[in-house]
Structure formats: structure tokens, C-alpha cells
Design goal:
7 helices, mainly alpha, 156 residues
Length: 156
């Protein structure tokens, strides 16, 4: 995969943002925003799967987010932050080959680059908390060596 996963996630963020604001069909958004990734079929397929799955399970993802931001009105969260959180949680739950630490770190970096000054810390806190709950509930299914570590916190 010569295109970095960060670039894929950035395209996914753009596509989900366009879908959120325009309500356009997924096919149209894939064709206009994600089409440049078609040069590498496996890259395009990863982006397509993440977009479709995130949209498909948005109510479930939003319920998990709402459970962690009880002191906030959900609709007042920055749209970019909501989308980044949805993507991160979707990866945690449905993408068995992506380590949780990678999903969280990528979400933090994307928040740092595309959202508000404090979004990276907000995204980190929410995703780490949700990951802890998902692990306790046995909902995180990862395959392969080293894909489910005991903690996302860095050791000294």
C-alpha cells in the first residue's frame, strides 16, 4: 500500500463530512471524493469499507459517543470531531486487522490537523474511554499478533 493509511483516513473524513452536510448518496460521494484512490484497488476498498460501515452504524456509534459526552449537547460537538470519533469507534469495532492504538493515534492526529485547538485531547479522551468500555464488554475483536494490547497508554 503506497498510499499511507493517514491519507486514506483523510479522504474518508472528507467523504463522511460531505455526506453529513449534503446528504448525497454514498455512491456519488465515493465517485467524487474517493475516486482518486482507485489507482490502488486495495486502498480504495479500505476507504470504501470504512465510509460505508461508518454510515451504516452511525446510530450505534453516536450512542457510544453520547454516553461519553453527557455534559455536552451532542449536536453542538464540532462536526469534524463527531466524524473523527465515528471513524475511530468504527475501526475499533469492525476492522479486526487495525490495532486499537493505531485507530486512536490516527484519530488524534487527524483531529489535531483538521479540527479545533483542543480537539486532539477531546478525541483521545473519548476514544480511550470508549475502548475501555468496549474491552470490558468483550466487544473488541482483533485478529493477528499484537492487535489487542492491554492498554492504549504509553509506558514510561
Amino acid at each position: 500500500m503506497s498510499i499511507k493509511r493517514r491519507q486514506i483516513r483523510e479522504k474518508v473524513l472528507q467523504a463522511l463530512y460531505a455526506h453529513e452536510l449534503s446528504g448525497e448518496s454514498v455512491d456519488l460521494i465515493l465517485e467524487h471524493i474517493v475516486a482518486p484512490l482507485k489507482k490502488e484497488p486495495e486502498v480504495f476498498e479500505l476507504a470504501r469499507q470504512l465510509i460505508i460501515k461508518t454510515i451504516e452504524v452511525t446510530p450505534e456509534l453516536d450512542a457510544l459517543i453520547k454516553g461519553r459526552v453527557a455534559n455536552w449537547e451532542f449536536n453542538r460537538l464540532a462536526v469534524i470531531d463527531r466524524i473523527i470519533l465515528r471513524m475511530g469507534i468504527c475501526e475499533l469495532l469492525y476492522f479486526e486487522d487495525i490495532p486499537p492504538k493505531v485507530s486512536i493515534n490516527e484519530a488524534i492526529e487527524i483531529a489535531r490537523r483538521y479540527s479545533t485547538e483542543k480537539s486532539d485531547k477531546f478525541v483521545n479522551g473519548v476514544l480511550d474511554s470508549i475502548l475501555t468500555d468496549l474491552k470490558k464488554g468483550g466487544r473488541v475483536k482483533k485478529t493477528g499478533r499484537g492487535l489487542l494490547e492491554t492498554s492504549t497508554k504509553k509506558k514510561p
